[in-house]
Write a structure and sequence with these properties.
By secondary structure, the chain is mainly alpha-helical. Helix content is 53%, strand content 3%. It folds into three domains: 94 residues; 95 residues, DNA polymerase, domain 1 (Orthogonal Bundle), CATH 1.10.150.130; 177 residues, Orthogonal Bundle (hpI Integrase, Chain A). It is built from 16 helices and three strands. It has a three-stranded antiparallel beta sheet, with no helix packed on it. The radius of gyration is 24 Å and the shape is globular. The relative contact order is 0.07.
Length: 411
Amino acid sequence: MNSKCVEFLELMQAARNHMEEQGFTYTSVTCCMRTWRSVYNFAISKGIEHYSAELAEQYMLEKYQISIGENCIDESRLSPYLTQRVRALRALTDFKLHGFVPKLKPGEVVEWPEAYRDVSEKFVQEYEANGYAKSTCRAHELNLYRFVCFLDSKGVEPSMIEANHIYDYFKTLSHFSKSHLVNLRFTTIHALQYFYEKGLCPKDISTYVPKIYYYAKAKLDKTWSEDEISQMLSAIDRSNPLGKRDYAIMAIAANLGLRTGDILCLKIDDFDWKAGVLNIIQQKTGEPLSLPLSEQIGKAVIDYWMNGRPDTIASEIFVQHTLPYQKLSQGIVYHMFNKYYGSSGFQFPSGRKHGLHSFRHSLASRLLEKDTPVNMIGNILGHVDSNSASSYLRVDIEKLRKCALEVQDYE
């Protein structure tokens, strides 16, 4: 056997031993090993002799048409099978790059390394006290957890952190997307500044955090036309309970532009049927939002509530149709969307955004086409910052063409 192949197998065994020592369950380790063996066989078939983040990316692209490098994967949108694949590959990549696999599941309480426990907990508590959304606080918590776990694995206490430790840490993040790196960088900078303010670091070394050049709005978002949305809604069979639920969800997303999280948290009391208005408190911003109810949405919601929704103690309108009939997850909604996207009969380019959030961009685009003022679009979409809606101007191509300047010919 080739010595490089032996290195690959030794890496797998070393990662397995490490995960067992870290307290990963037998099932988790076994699932990871199954994925790693599949990647190993894939590498052999391609003549690749060693493991790398690039190999993991190639494996997922060719076998599942999913990118885990350039695109930041939201695991809640993947099936359990693909989620396990992605996590296994990230674990092996993490272990190869810095010899450590962070042990943390979604929603699990963070067990901070002893040297960083007090300051890390207070750092997260400050975000919570400042009124940031739970999801934002959790993201900073996980980002900081990754950073301090790396430092702890190298035996580095807060007072010992130097620039080279920061550089080494960011070298281990090369397999993440730029958008995720920007978030990791933001947390790292603020954490180092906080460590310095609390007297744990002798100097402020946050200036040594590498810069990440990334513009989040560099790519234009694809939008759905009214005909495309109509055809997708028509693909839903409303003669059964699941179809009634799915139709109501997608009709709300397409016509009101609500965020997926807000749709899944809707309660029947949020609907003012006499006034024909939907009143909610937005999950992301905590701000109230009132939107007019169309006949289409009203009938769809009532039809599901009366004729499709299972008997459950869940307060949310839209629930799973398997026991224990609890609130829907965003992952289920993502796959629901793709099911009707696939059966709609359209052939779309691979760059087309999937998921209910694409309906939100599409609504903004349709409103722009009807000459709706940008600030009004922001109010409809529930933006706190009136400038947030200005990003949708980029999708109004026809009006942008009118702004083009003529370039003189040069001899």
